[in-house]
Specification:
The structure holds two protein chains of two kinds.
Chain A lengths: L9 H12 L3 H15 L10 E6 L6 H8 L2 H4 L3 E6 L3 H9 L5 E5 L1 H7 L9 E6 L2 E2 L1 E6 H10 L6 H17 L5 E5 L5 H12 L8 E5 L5 H6 L5 E5 L2 H7 L3 E6 H4 L6 E6 H6 L1 H19 L4 H8 L13 H5 L1 E2 L8 E2 L4 E2 L10 H13 L9 H8 L2 H10 L19 E3 L6 E3 L18
Parallel strand pairs in A: 1-2, 1-3, 7-8, 7-9
Antiparallel strand pairs in A: 3-11, 4-11, 5-14, 6-9, 6-10, 12-13, 15-16
Helix pairs in contact in A: 1-2, 3-14, 7-8, 14-19, 17-18
Chain B lengths: L4 E5 L3 H13 L3 E6 L5 H8 L3 E5 L5 H10 L6 E3 L7 H10 L1 E6 L4 H49 L3 H14 L4 H15 L1
Parallel strand pairs in B: 1-2, 1-3
Antiparallel strand pairs in B: 3-5, 4-5
The chains are: A alpha/beta, B alpha/beta.
């Protein structure tokens, strides 16, 4: 056979080109199966080929951007437009109304939608996590100086929050107004991790501080203008504030909860039901994109792609933690290695752990955002769909964990998750207040 | 029916002036028009509007979402599209680029005419802006084509018509639009100039 047969979708052609060169028995087998699927009447072709997906300008929109720019969507026969949105509410509304097919969402958003907390009566689901971690808590220069005066080791969650507790107590005795911290959306991991961190030292997030919502791209200017004293936001906005000398990070959120959930691919349940093959194609493309992003040698190219005008137009040096795994907590201290700051594929980072959803629901209940009567396990299993993930991973011969839930917080060290093929090397998932925290800057 | 108080949040002063006028002409009460949504929650608390009409591009939308969470004891703004079977109306609003919140407890049917006025004006403004953008980009395209023609004239010693024909012929043979061909030529000239 010379060349590729005509009239095949691009992914079939790609497959032919990739497999015929190395025609091992296994490859031929995959080839004939796929060929059969493509040609047979009951095929898996996407029901809908042209898709619109929404995203917010953040480092962790990278799997979507890379899938488009490196041709992973195209290889699955999808033509995807990415639409940069100015608020999470916009993504939610546009997905609910069908103006967008799906989008970059905060992990608690599909949960909130399914509980109708947004009032839109449109249940949503996720079958893929877009990565783990990626946020930090940054405070104003003035607040940082006050915290450092109380404890020179402020840069890890334990020392930072203890110093903050002392400071807040002093300020309350002096009759000063409460400090204001911003996060990005009521139903966000930022909100719940910020609350978890504050509460661990006995700071009541609803009484002892003021919590406000500010969209990520406006965080840096809000901190600069003194409108807020600190924020919890995803990259590159912490790095930008630090590089501009406006603030300093007091902890990354991966240090609060190691390898914690962050963004997901969210679609409505109705959409997933109407376009199951399209959904699978989307999941496969994003799995390949996450795998591509995982390789450190791809990060420089990813930075160049990501900082284009239509995606995340920031200076390339603001993406240093993404590019090299180095995070600079403040301008007067050296950058430190934080290799797990953004995790895209390893540690089963793309897997929609039902236990992630359960933890988020438990925090919604903890802070009175939803009634305690809601059955967390039932809701989580409806919104988080490892079954759909496994189908996509299997088609790509990628391993998936066999379990839907892990015991969150119980892994203080690396561990192995049993999968349908090779075991998966997992990262720890402990919370900072359950283990001994080593200070980030030991020379301080 | 008592007059409802409307807060309009839009950073496009031209559009918000038109929308405000239209709402007032229809007999409604616009209590404030904010161009900047930086202090949105403070303003909402101080002004106590019944309805908030907000530009979908305003990042302050997420701030309003939080007000629904924190003001558990007060009347809180809820998003308008909460009734089922509203998808068509919601799409219409989204395409026009407008979103609306109303105070919990108000009757949605009371609010609809107000939001419809806003949607209509947003859409009208969008059409105007598109027309303006199209005109601007046509003008810019013309300039690039003129420049490309000039380059061909200088290099090939052709007259204006000959240069245009050559550009057109090349565009057609490469299956490109005339403007795209001209752009390539101009950028190559900038590079190698």
């Amino acid at each position: 056979m010379s060349g590729s047969p005509k009239n095949l979708p691009p992914f079939a052609n790609n497959l032919l080109n990739n497999t015929l060169g190395t025609a091992s028995a296994k490859h031929l087998d995959v080839y004939s199966q796929t060929f059969y699927t493509v040609m047979s009447p009951t095929n898996n072709l996407p029901e809908k080929v042209s898709l619109n997906l929404g995203f917010i300008p953040l480092t962790d929109c990278a799997p979507l951007v890379i899938a488009k720019e490196k041709g992973f969507f195209h290889a699955e026969g999808l033509s995807v437009s990415l639409s940069r949105e100015s608020s999470w509410a916009n993504i939610r509304d546009k997905v609910a109304a069908g103006v967008l097919d799906g989008g970059h969402m905060l992990a608690p958003m599909p949960i909130a939608a399914s509980l109708n907390l947004d009032g839109l009566n449109t249940p949503m689901l996720t079958a893929l996590s877009l990565g783990l971690g990626g946020n930090a808590i940054t405070v104003s220069h003035a607040l940082h100086q006050q915290l450092l005066a109380l404890d020179a080791q402020v840069a890890d969650p334990y020392h930072s929050v203890q110093a903050l507790k002392t400071l807040i107590s002093q300020q309350q005795r002096a009759g000063l107004p409460p400090l204001t911290f911003a996060h990005v959306f009521p139903f966000s991991c930022h909100n719940y991790l910020l609350r978890y961190w504050l509460a661990s030292a006995g700071i009541d997030p609803d009484k002892d501080v003021r919590l406000v919502v500010i969209p990520p791209p406006l965080m840096v200017s809000a901190l600069a203008s003194g409108q807020i004293d600190g924020f919890c936001v995803g990259e590159p906005w912490n790095s930008q504030a630090i590089a501009q000398g406006i603030g300093a990070a007091v902890t990354s959120t991966v240090d609060i909860w190691h390898n914690s959930p962050e963004k997901v691919l969210g679609v409505t349940c109705a959409w997933a039901e109407q376009y199951p093959n399209t959904h699978q194609a989307l999941l496969r493309a994003l799995l390949k994109s996450a795998q591509w992003l995982e390789l450190s040698e791809h990060r420089a190219e990813a930075c160049a792609i990501l900082t284009a005008e239509e995606y995340v137009p920031v200076a390339i040096q603001d993406l240093r933690v993404f590019e090299r795994g180095e995070f600079q907590y403040s301008t007067d201290r050296p950058a430190l290695q934080v290799p797990d700051f953004n995790v895209f594929y390893r540690y089963a980072a793309t897997f929609p752990w039902v236990s992630h959803a359960e933890w988020l629901i438990s925090q919604m209940q903890r802070w009175g955002h939803i009634p305690p009567s809601i059955n967390a396990q039932e809701v989580a299993a409806k919104v988080y769909r490892p079954d759909l993930y496994r189908q996509a991973a299997q088609a790509l011969e990628l391993p998936s964990p066999l379990i839907d839930r892990k015991n969150e917080g119980s892994h203080n060290n690396a561990w192995l998750a049993t999968s349908d093929s090779v075991d998966i090397a997992m990262g720890r998932d402990c919370f900072f207040d359950q283990v001994n925290v080593e200070p980030r800057y030991t020379d301080a | 029916m008592p007059k409802l108080n409307i807060l309009l949040v839009d950073n496009d002063p031209g559009r918000s002036a038109i929308v405000k006028q239209a709402l007032e002409d229809a007999g409604h009460n616009v209590i404030a028009k904010l161009n900047d949504d930086a202090n949105l929650s403070k303003n909402v608390l101080a002004l106590q509007p019944d309805i908030i009409i907000i530009d979908m591009d305003a990042p302050g939308r997420d701030t309003l979402e939080q007000m629904r969470e924190i003001n558990r004891d007060q009347a809180r703004p809820i998003i308008l599209f909460s009734a089922p079977n509203d998808q068509r109306f919601m799409q219409e609003a989204i395409r026009a680029g407008v979103s609306a919140y109303m105070l919990d407890g108000l009757n949605q049917t009371q609010i609809m005419p107000i939001v419809e006025v806003a949607i209509a004006r947003f859409r009208e403004f969008q059409a105007l802006r598109k027309e303006l953008d199209d005109t601007k980009s046509k003008l810019a395209d013309r300039k690039i084509i003129e420049k490309a023609k000039g380059l061909i004239m200088a290099r090939k010693g052709l007259d204006e018509d000959g240069a245009y024909q050559l550009l057109r012929k090349n565009a057609m043979s490469q299956n490109k639009r005339l403007i795209d061909m001209a752009r390539i030529l101009v950028s190559v000239e900038d590079l190698l100039g």
